[in-house]
Amino acid sequence: MKRGFGSRRQFLSESGNGMGLLGLAALLNQQGLLAGEKGCPSAGSIETPFTPKKPHFAARAKAVISLFMSGGVGQMDTFDPKPMLDKYAGQPLSGKGEIVVRQGHPGPLMPSPFTFKQYGKSGMPVSEIFPNVARHVDDMAFIRSVIGRSNDHVMASYELATGSIRMGAPSVGAWVTYGLGSENQNLPAYVVIYDARGGPFGGPSNWTAGYMPAVFQGTIFRSAGDPIVDLTPPASVTAEQQRARLDLLGKLNSLDERRNPANSDLAARINSYELAYRMQSCAPEAVDMDHESDVTKKLYGLDNDVTAPFGRQCLMARRLVERGVRFIQLYHGGLGNQNTDTWDAHENVKDNHTRHAAEVDTPIAGLIADLKGRGMLDDTLVIWQSEFGRMPISQRGVGRDHNPGTMTIFMAGAKVKGGQAIGASDDFGYKAEVQPITVHDLHATILHLLGMDHTRLTYAYQGRNMRLTDVYGVPIPQVVA
Q1: Containing H/E element for 87?
Q2: pLDDT value, residue 45
Q3: pLDDT at position 31, please?
Q4: What is the pLDDT of residues 231-244, one digit of tens each?
Q5: Beta strand pairing call for 140-147 and 437-438
Q6: I need a labelling partner for 472 at 20 to 30 A (CA). Which of 26, 64, 175, 294 fits?
Q7: Which of 82, 78, 80 has its CA nearest to residue 133?
Q8: Is the dihedral of CA 210, 321, 74, 343 positive or negative?
Q9: How far apart are CA 471 and CA 410, in angstroms?
Q10: Positive or negative, the Cα torsion across 228, 234, 240, 241?
């Protein structure tokens, strides 16, 4: 299915303007699609792009919550301790070939400014900056040998998001919703919530549908204020006026669809109107956290100005998963000020990582505890990641530069065996040494946990059956066992 960039831009423009018609969908009313639970209209028997689809095999997860720490987290400062950095502090990193840095000013080996302790029955070591997350290590698998292909923020972010370092490929969330649909027809299947300080490196291309129909792209929920813009119809427009507009729109769309049956942009536009109507009844309740108990709010850190912003994102993610949303992408770190508002610790790794870990430690721990307490962790995959790791050598004595040679990611839930470390970086945390794991392997693993064989999940485009994993990828054995 060939789609030009021009038609996609046209669709986004038209659907963006059309989202102002978030009022009553008279087309659905005419088809008797207004009956639903708890005041939510139902999609009835209509086939939508998000009608649930059967997985290839029994799934261990039905939903994913991805926690992306934008900017690049230092593995040796969080979940991959390197005592050899203390032993050889101040000495050059030798025997590794050419040392490639992004911003220059390479210095000698620099130990972590943080201490580590062992936690849980498994004795997993965790940095002092994550005391609350540390309490859940027995539910978490730490993958210490993930490798990337770029030391550029944008390209590395695209790789984690889409499997490609170039923009234009469909994101993981798009692939998941394309392959499985959604368990809830009244909310988006794929939701993105980014930091109130700004979006991540690379912007919307991180949650794009790429060459797939536009309907599979992520839907933005705001992390501050009203999560969904223009959800309430304007007071100046009556229900009768909305019905007349949508009646006319339905007739025009039907004519256009008959003339252009292969136009996926049009189908996506029509679906957006239908979903918008259903969201008017369901979304306000889904994103309303006022009725959560004080105990729950405190669990996520909503009682603290430092932790509340990311806590709201995590609590909203849990509420969305409860309501059948398939894939939720949360971003922490926004491009207000790159050096202070993201994890990009060029200037001072101690100050940077201390500040940002304090913002997310309680919310992440609260999310895992809440999911587990509600019996939801067994079939929800929580994945914590960043676009790359950081260098074991110093930058100007106190910072660390980008390092795609190794990074640490953790997974929890979906019956993944916790309390284990998978793979290993070298003694200094410079390169993955034992069981290097590519992003394609990581994506194959996520799809496997969702019941999909990554080699069978394909989309025909320009004469080729495209895959999220291209022609690569092997599920991580210790995770899928």
Answers
A1: helix 83-87
A2: 52
A3: 37
A4: 666 778 776 787 78
A5: parallel
A6: 64
A7: 78
A8: positive
A9: 25
A10: negative
CA angle 387, 191, 194 (to 5 degrees): 50
Q: Which amino acid is at 69?
A: M
Quote the CA–CA distance of 431 and 407 in Å, as a whole number.
9
Using alpha carbons, list the distances in angstroms from residue 455 to 55, 162, 190, 448, 480: 13, 16, 22, 10, 16
Task: Print burial letters for 250-278: b (CB count within 10 Å at least 16), e (below 16).
Answer: beebeeeeeeeeebbbbbbbbbbbbbbbb
pLDDT band for position 275 (cuts 50, 70, 90): confident
- Report whether 361 contacts 133 (CB < 8 A): yes
- The H or E element spanning position 155 is helix 153-162
* Spatial separation of the C-alpha atoms in residues 346 and 340, rounded to whole Å: 10
Average pLDDT over residues 128-146: 98
DSSP per-residue codes, 436-450: -EEHHHHHHHHHHHT
Structure-block tokens of residue 192: 């993105």
> How far apart (Å, rounded) are the C-alpha atoms in residues 322 and 480?
24
Burial 135-169 (b: 16+ CB within 10 A, else e): ebbbbbbbbbbbbbebbbbbbbbbbbbbbbbebeb
pLDDT tens figures, 28-78: 333 333 333 445 655 555 567 889 999 999 999 999 999 999 999 999 999
DSSP state of 399: B
Looking only at the bridges linking them, the beta strands covering 63-69 and 380-385 are parallel
Dihedral pair phi/psi, residue 11, rounded to 5°:
-65, -45
> Is this structure's pTM higher than 0.90?
no
Q: What does residue 210 show for φ and ψ, rounded to 5 degrees? A: 60, -125
DSSP secondary structure of 44-62? TT---TTS----SS--S-S
For 93-104, b/e burial (b = at least 16 CB within 10 A) is: beeeeeeebbee
d(CA 45, CA 227): 29
Contact 184, 48 (CB under 8 A): no
Give the number of other CB atoms < 10 A from CB of residue 245: 15
